[in-house]
Design the sequence.
C-alpha cells in the first residue's frame, strides 16, 4: 500500500508527456511570426522547428533522465498524405504512437487498446512549444564556432542560457546541412547536465523508408477509445494563479488521468519549457497516505500540496523552486464566496 502514492506521482509524470496535446500554435502562425521578426535567434530556432516538422527522417534516439535511459525509434514523413509519424518505444512496455495530420493513435499492446488523441508534435527533435518571439527576453543564444558529431553527422553547437533561475538552460547540436536537432541537453544553474536526448542513428531525406510508418501490430480486435478533452475556465471557478516571469497560459482543460478519475489542467510555457498544474478533488480514502511536497526525476520536478478540498500538483521541466513557488502561490476562492 505504501507504493500507491509513488505510482500516482509517476502517473502524473506520464501525463506530462501529453500535457501539450492540442495546445501548440499552428505551424503557419509560427512561420508568420518568424518572418515578421528580425531577431536572428528567433529565426534560428524557427529553422530548427521547421526542420523537425517538414523533413523526412528516421532513426533511433535515446533519452537519459537521471538514472533512467529510454530509447525510441521515430519515422517522420511529409508527402501527399500530409505529415505522418510513427514513434515506437524500444525499452520497457511496448507502445507506439501513430500520427497523421491532426490525429494521433496510441497503441498499447498490453491492453489491446488504441487511444485516439489530438496531434502531438512537441517531442524531440521539435524544440518550440509555441511562440518563439518572447524567448530572447528569457534566454541568451550563444552559437559556438566549433562543430561536433552526432549519429555520424556534423552538427553546430549552440546554447540557450537562462537569464534567471526560474528555468533551465539548454545546449543543442543541429545538423549543419538540414538544421534538424540531433542532440539536446538540459543544464542546471552550474552548467551540469540534468537530462539529455540524442540520435544514435539517423537517416534524412530520400534515405527514409516510408514502409517503416506501418505498425507491426495486428490491431483488428483491439479496443478503440477516443479521448475527449473539455476546455474550462479555472479563474471563473475561483482559482487564482501567479505565473512565473515569462510563462503564459496555453490551455485550460479537463483531462482524464485514469478511468473514472479526471483532473483540471492548466498548461504554461515560456516557448521552450512547459509547466502543468493539475487540480483534483481530494478523496480521504484514496489520498490519505499521499504526501505533500516535492520530488524530481531528471529535469522534471513535481510539487504537491493540499488546497481547500483539492490536491494541487505542479509539474514541469523547470527547477524545483519554480514549481514549488507556483504551487504555494495558488489560491482558491469558492464561487459562492466570490459572488458575495
Sequence:
Amino acid at each position: 500500500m505504501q507504493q500507491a502514492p509513488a505510482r500516482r506521482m509517476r502517473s502524473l509524470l506520464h501525463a506530462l508527456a501529453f500535457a501539450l496535446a492540442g495546445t501548440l500554435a499552428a505551424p503557419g502562425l509560427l512561420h508568420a511570426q518568424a518572418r515578421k521578426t528580425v531577431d536572428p535567434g528567433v529565426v534560428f530556432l524557427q529553422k530548427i522547428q521547421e526542420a523537425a516538422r517538414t523533413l523526412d527522417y528516421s532513426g533511433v534516439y535515446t533519452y537519459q533522465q537521471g538514472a533512467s535511459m529510454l530509447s525510441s525509434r521515430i519515422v517522420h514523413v511529409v508527402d501527399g498524405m500530409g505529415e505522418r509519424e510513427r514513434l515506437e518505444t524500444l525499452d520497457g512496455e511496448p507502445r507506439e504512437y501513430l500520427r497523421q495530420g491532426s490525429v494521433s493513435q496510441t497503441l498499447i499492446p498490453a491492453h489491446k487498446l488504441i487511444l485516439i488523441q489530438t496531434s502531438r508534435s512537441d517531442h524531440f527533435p521539435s524544440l518550440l512549444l509555441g511562440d518563439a518571439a518572447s524567448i530572447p527576453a528569457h534566454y541568451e543564444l550563444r552559437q559556438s564556432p566549433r562543430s561536433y558529431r552526432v549519429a555520424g553527422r556534423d552538427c553546430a553547437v549552440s546554447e540557450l542560457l537562462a537569464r534567471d533561475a526560474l528555468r533551465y538552460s539548454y545546449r543543442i547540436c543541429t545538423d549543419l546541412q538540414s538544421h534538424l536537432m540531433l542532440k539536446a541537453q538540459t543544464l542546471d544553474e552550474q552548467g551540469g547536465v540534468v537530462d539529455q536526448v540524442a540520435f544514435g542513428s539517423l537517416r534524412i531525406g530520400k534515405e527514409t523508408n516510408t514502409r517503416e510508418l506501418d505498425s507491426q501490430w495486428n490491431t483488428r480486435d483491439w479496443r478503440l477509445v477516443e479521448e475527449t478533452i473539455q476546455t474550462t475556465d479555472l479563474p471563473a471557478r475561483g482559482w487564482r494563479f501567479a505565473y512565473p516571469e515569462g510563462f503564459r497560459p496555453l490551455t485550460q482543460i479537463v483531462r482524464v488521468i485514469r478511468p473514472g478519475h479526471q483532473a483540471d489542467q492548466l498548461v504554461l510555457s515560456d516557448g521552450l519549457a512547459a509547466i502543468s498544474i493539475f487540480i483534483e478533488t481530494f478523496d480521504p480514502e484514496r489520498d490519505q497516505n499521499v504526501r505533500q511536497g516535492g520530488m524530481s526525476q531528471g529535469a522534471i520536478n513535481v510539487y504537491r500540496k493540499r488546497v481547500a478540498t483539492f490536491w494541487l500538483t505542479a509539474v514541469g521541466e523547470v527547477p524545483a523552486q519554480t514549481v514549488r513557488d507556483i504551487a504555494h502561490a495558488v489560491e482558491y476562492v469558492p464561487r459562492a464566496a466570490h459572488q458575495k
